[in-house]
Amino acid sequence: MKVALIHDWLIRQRGGEKVLEHIARLYPESDIYTLFCDRKKISPYLASRNIKTSWLQYVPGIGKVYPFLLPFFPWTIRLFNLKKYDLIISSSHCVAKGIVKPKEALHLCYCHTPIRYAWKFQKEYFKGKIYGFLAIWILSWLKRWDYATAQEVDYYCANSFEVKKRIENYYQRDAEVIHPPVDLNSEDSILEDRPFYLVLSALVPYKRIDLAVEAFNDLGYELKVIGTGPCLNELKQSSKTNIEFLGWVEDSVLKSYYANAKAFIFPGLEDFGITPLEAQIMGTPVIAFGEGGVTETVVPYKEDGVFYSGVFFESQDKESILHAVRQFESLTFDRKKIKEHALSFRGEVFDLKLKNWINDKMSQKRDLSLPSG
After folding, report:
1. CATH T-level assignment (fold) for domain 3-181+346-369
2. What DSSP element (H or E) covers 223?
3. For a designed S-S bond to 279, which of 66, 99, 108, 284 qualifies (C-beta 3.0 to 4.6 A apart)?
């Protein structure tokens, strides 16, 4: 059986790429197709695999200019020739699921989200930009393309119930839910003194790191921000001295920050959100906006709760975060139980569930292809 894996692009190792790596390990002989790739910025395992890229790979500075080339993505993804493959698995948050499927092949999509800037976050991505009106016109066309090609997928798997609802609402398709894997080793030492709060995020508008900065400016508590992105300079300029920006850090260093943070701050609305789980697997509680995928991974504090792994705030504004952090300061958390809770999302659980789902859909495909009588 010939297997092809499709991923939108490979220029960093984040949650979607970690999912792709797990799928790739399940199918070690598979080929990986992606629009463009930077092997230096993905995991050594993925970088060692047979990765086939599109013409976009040869655009100078593609890793920086690719957002401006979005209109070319739908056309380009459909240029890949997949006629020799029996099973196609797309790992999609943009256009990967829009490939042209061979007639007899089975196309399974692990959907991180329908294209978020087409369906849900247009204002956050394009607010105040001079090309905003043009972008929204292009995205309205992209939305129609996305819906049409979504009907060509045989079966969907969503990374959260939040994304399952989006697939149902936007595509009118059903999806099974298998939560992404968490692979951090939780055996690192943990300090008793936890002087700082932690943010780990791409610094882009919809992540709403600006709200965390505003709140901690008022609180005066130490906040460390790991990540980079187009909002970095603006966030730095608006921050007081209690807020430190660290850029991206190595995994070994990142684990230490996770393990020794007082709490992890998560102000955005996410499809799933792997970082709150990574914090919890290190025993660290979470303070988060109480909507989206985080509601499936964090157990929020309740007055009669026996176990809780975090605190939710109700709206995306500074005052709600201030209230949540002050509430957090009065609570006591069982960090060992937080770890145990997060371990139910570990990699081997994901691998087993996903393999069973794929095998089930392959069996259904075979049954449908058998002659009756």
Report:
1. Rossmann fold (3.40.50)
2. strand 222-226
3. 284
State the pTM of this model.
0.84
Least-confidence region, from 17-21, 44-48, 131-135, 307-311: 131-135
d(CA 57, CA 33): 12
For residue 68, the model assigns a pLDDT of 86
CB 275 within 8 A of CB 297: no
The length of the chain, given as a count of residues: 373
Cα dihedral across residues 214, 217, 221, 226: positive or negative: positive
Q: How is residue 169 annotated by DSSP?
A: I
Q: Fold match between 3-181+346-369 and 196-345?
A: yes
What does the domain layout of the chain look like in residue ranges? 3-181+346-369, 196-345
- Token pair belonging to 364: 């259904």
User: Sheet of 176-177: strands edge to edge?
Assistant: 51-53, 31-34, 3-7, 87-92, 106-111, 155-158, 176-177
At a CB cut-off of 8 Å and minimum separation 6, what does 159 contact?
A: 19, 110, 111, 112, 113, 177, 178, 179, 180, 271, 272, 293
pLDDT band with cut points at 50, 70 and 90 for residue 271: confident
Q: How confident is the model at residue 135 (pLDDT cuts 50, 70, 90)?
A: low
Residue 130 pLDDT > 50: no
Which helix (H) or strand (E) is 22 found in, with range?
Answer: helix 15-26
108 DSSP β-pair partners: 89, 155
User: Helix, strand or coil for residue 28?
Assistant: coil
